[in-house]
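Same chain as my last thread, 243 residues:
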Amino acid sequence: MIVIPAIDIMDGKVVRLLRGKEQDITVYSDDPVAIAKKWESYGAELLHVVDLDGAIHGTAKNFEIITRIAATVNIPVQLGGGVRNKYDLARYLTSGVSRVILGTKAIENREFLKEVLAEWKGQIIVSIDCKDGLVAHHGWTEVSNVRAIEFAKELKGLGLKCLIYTDIGRDGTLGGPNLEGLTEILESVHLSVIASGGVSSIKDIQKLLALEPKGLWGIITGKAIYEDKLDLRQAIRLCSPKE
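reply #2:
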């Protein structure tokens, strides 16, 4: 299992939102590329980059910054936020981004999802962003009537290999991950799962490590490492395979 630092970008700055709300924003840096290099130097094996402007407005607002990150670091970059057509998806994948995360488009258009999974296979991840067990979309501003667990099963049937599970009620709260929701997903579908939302301490990492045998492949952390609640180096060492 790996620990994946998050770099959320809005207006060209590195920020974190509380439960995805624009009005609850904290700015941590005006240099996303420098932050990417910092997390790489700490031993990160993968970066999770989110175009928050894109997620909210549905267009690739921070394309140049994100592709500059991908060109600067020597580790893979996965990108989410506002990718809702094949043009933007292909543009990112041919500009250095390793994997693209779909959220809104995946829940709204299954035919589109089938097409891109057939074309790009392992380079597509779907993010299941949940509120009270239901899938949220459009930058978390709308909640569907689709149950997360049923959506996960459908995604497996379509050939998806990896998904991100986010409890948006915990994102940015440092309140700990939703272990119950994660366990339900892991036990229901045999996919590689990345946990996101609420990770705040080494104790949280240890709890999540217990889910690795069930298929938990990665842990995304954001606010905790920006506010020095979680030592990223220590977390990476804890999750590294023992010699």
